[in-house]
Amino acid sequence: MKDQDLIKSLSQKHSKVKTLPNANKRALTFGVISFFSVLILMYFNGGFRVLSNDYGFNFQTLELVSIFVAFFSIMIVSFNSSIPGNTINSALKVFYTCSFLFGISLLYRYLFIPDGYAPMLTRVFHCTEEVLAYATLIQFFLYWRVSKGVLLSLKKTVIFTTLTAATLPLMLMALGCCIRPVHIFTSHFAPLAIYTVVVGIAQYYFLRKKYEY
User: Fold this and answer.
1) What pTM does this model have?
2) Quick check: 47 and 122 in contact, CB under 8 A?
3) How does pLDDT run across 137-170, given as a tens digit for each residue?
């Protein structure tokens, strides 16, 4: 009887541990919130180009759609990687495919259509700072949300969250800035590539002691 009383008293003192919502739902929710948050920040930092004459069935549209799908697929990977038993292979394949299409399209334009469209001068001079600020903001909140799960592999979690944080600014800057290939490489892609490597390594070494088993 004493054992039953002890168990009852202990159970009453501790609240139930809430289960995490479905990983895909959390990923899509966070992805939509991130998407519109960055859009709002971009609007106040320089606005958007007039897109009606720029997009159609062309390479710019392919790049925009492919990087959009890549963002949500790697977001799904980030959240599912922290849930034991959840598979991420399909979403990873989508991310790799879309990233490949984006890269090939950008490389083609760089080699054969280098001029593209005229830059949006109100924004082009601070693109590097802008993409890095957006990526850092997304990275901070994304890691906080993903870490609510079980980090089966800190390395994978850091890689996926850092890639996710870098992908969204790369996509959305196509709506608000110059889409000349050279500028995209130098002021959008290159800074975010460096960010992914540097921040990923720094985050791993900073957090690894906390998650060492």
Assistant:
1) 0.75
2) yes
3) 888 887 777 666 666 677 888 888 888 889 888 8
